[in-house]
Every structure is written in C-alpha cells, then in structure tokens.
Amino acid sequence: MTTCPNRAPAPPAQPAVLSARPHRPRGTVRDPRPPADPRQQHRPRRPRHPRAACSGGPDRDPREGLSVRFAHRLVEVLTGARPSGQLLRHTTLDCYGQLSALVRAGTLRGPGGAGRPRLGPVHDRSPSPGAVEACVRVDLGSRHHVVAFRLEPRGPSGQWQCTAVEAR
Known about the structure:
By secondary structure, the protein is an alpha+beta fold. The chain has helices spanning about 65-80, 95-105; strands spanning about 120-130, 130-140, 145-155, 160-165.
C-alpha cells in the first residue's frame, strides 16, 4: 500500500460507545409523565394477536359482517376500481369465471364514468348453516343495479368463498 505524501494519517479508530438512552426516531416526543401505577412501568407487554381486535368475543357469529365486507370488494371489482385477481382466493373456480365474464361485459360500468358507486343495505340470509346468500343495490349515477352472491365455507380451513355471483 502506498501512502500519499500530502495527506495526514487517519486518526486511530475509536471504540463504539453504546448509549444508555434507547433510540427514538426523529420527530417523536417522549411522554414525560410516569405511569400512574409504578408497577406497570416494568411489566412486560403481552404480544397482541393482529386479529384480536376483529374478533368481538367467543359468542360472536363469525359470519357477522362477512357479506357486507365481501359486497364492497365485489362491487369494487365489478366497477373496475379493484383488479379481479384480488378476489381469486375468495372465490371458487366456477365463480371466478362468472365474475370475469361480468367484468369483461362491463355490467357495472356506466358510460363516461358514472362516478363512485353507492351501495345500499346488504340483505343477507342463511338458507342453511353452511351458506349465506346476499344481495345489494348499487347506485351508479342515475342507474341502479343489483348484485347477488352466495358464500360457503370451503376447504380444510373452512374459509368462506363465493360460489356464485350475478349482477344486473
């Protein structure tokens, strides 16, 4: 290795010093108030399951709100606001074929972009314990459409999937 005659030698490396203060990203403010209960100060936090907030409790019906959530996503696919591939794992193969045909036909696409769709109340019923049938009215500008679908638990995990869809 050659040294440059005009350069000063580099200073010796300093050992790394670890700060006793934890790292806090810029712009965040530490709460100066101590906790009300001093025992809570050193208590480790329990990890929270990400879906814990979604499960309303052990007595809550898992189908509650299922048809409303699926109706919103289905209408977004039918109007072109969401790609149809996002519903692939939530539909059976036959239903995905029906959905793709409805998207290609442009059933819920108004001329000249009718604006954002407004969904009416989702009416659902359970003809059997393993099925939910639902329909929803969709307002696109001055036009009104109806979307109906059927959900059933499928596969070893019992995940709810759409087995039939129809839009007019």
